[in-house]
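Dear colleague,

Thank you for sharing your sequence with our group. We've completed the structure prediction you requested, and as agreed, I am returning the results in plain text so they can be pasted directly into your records. Please verify that the sequence below matches your submission; if there's any discrepancy, let me know and we will rerun it promptly.
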Amino acid sequence: MRSIQAKAYSQYLISLCGFILILLSSTKWAPVTKLNPIIWLVSGILIIVPFYKNKFDLQNSLQQKSLVKSSWLLGLFLLVISGFIIFKEMVWVFEQFADKADGSDVIPSLEAYVQRFLNGDPVYVEIPFENYSVQPTYFPAMWMPYIIPEVLGFDYRFMAIGSFFLVYCFGSLYYLFKYPSLIHAIVIAILPVLFVKWYVHYDVSVFVFGTELMPLSFYVLFLLGLTQKKWWIIGLSIGLCTMSRYSYTLYVIPFIFVIWKECGFKNIFKIGVYGISVILILYVLPFLIKDPSIFTNGLEYYSRTATDQWKTQFWQSPGSIPYHLDNGLSFSYYFYTFLGGNEEEKLNVAKLFNLIFCLSTAIAISYFWFKNKVKMEWNIYLALSLLLYLVIFYSFLYVPFSYLFMLPVGFAMTIFAFYGSRILKYKH
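Please find the predicted structure tokens below.
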């Protein structure tokens, strides 16, 4: 019995260490920065492996009802404290860097979207700044949530942070009730504080200039719907993910395959109706149908941005590796450094590798389920597989802006927070 328990805790620690490593490798944190893509890839796999290698002992979980109340109350108490710590930290950051808040066009652009919408003005027209203009490319779920802080008069960034923390807390407490563990109750409260403190120390710009935790909230909502098998939540969250950060695109292949195989076409259809309805209501009917060019203009703008980021920036020394590539957050650094040819040719290779590896991952996820290689619930398999897919996608991200990595890092943290205590209750 002790050896089984020891193995459970060792695998719990392996998964936890995987998250810590993936957090470390998402920032420019040490002399080994250029190894970050490799550390990132390995650590993403470390998070997932303990879940795949074991079978959950439901009977054992049900026998520990005495733990439920104490674990849940401890988790709730500590999460309230975590929320207070995070709030205080963000207040300090926003005050400390208030004079630098305009150093990026992200927040001012969001304000322009929202104010235009509220005033009844065209939303998707160029946004002028002092020395340049920005093509509006954000889908509605990236800016519509900020109608709330605009109307109520508080900082947009608190909306993003608060939305994520609320869905994180809800899901963590829900699963802590199902799979009680005093140790895990402590861990789920520590993780978001560690997440925030790390970024504040090593890359505070992601909080000063960005709101990436909002699209992460939609991915966590998808996770909640998936693990509870609520088709309407799954469908709505897919629509919101599509209308924000659509990194998951090729993941749709195994997602459809597994649910169709396990739950039938009827439920795939339900999900599709909800998801498409969100896209129609938020984007197609109010905006796209009036001006179809806003979609193609957005794609062209993204393409130009990618090309520009593969060139040495005007403020860098001539011949320097482009700034965002030199941060070493994806394999794009290696493509730029070691491949021959000009910047455009190297960028095309990076795009090709991103497509090949993401498509291969999607096919592999489908294959392993079809061949019954994994013994676990289909919805948990899909949740863990999405994390694997995101790890691969961002490993080969060819425009590796640092703030973008908050989404997969936050998703990895949420996966462990939701399911980590299951590892402690596996049959080995």
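Summary note from our side: Residues 259 and 265 are 8 Å apart (CA to CA).

Kind regards,
the structure core
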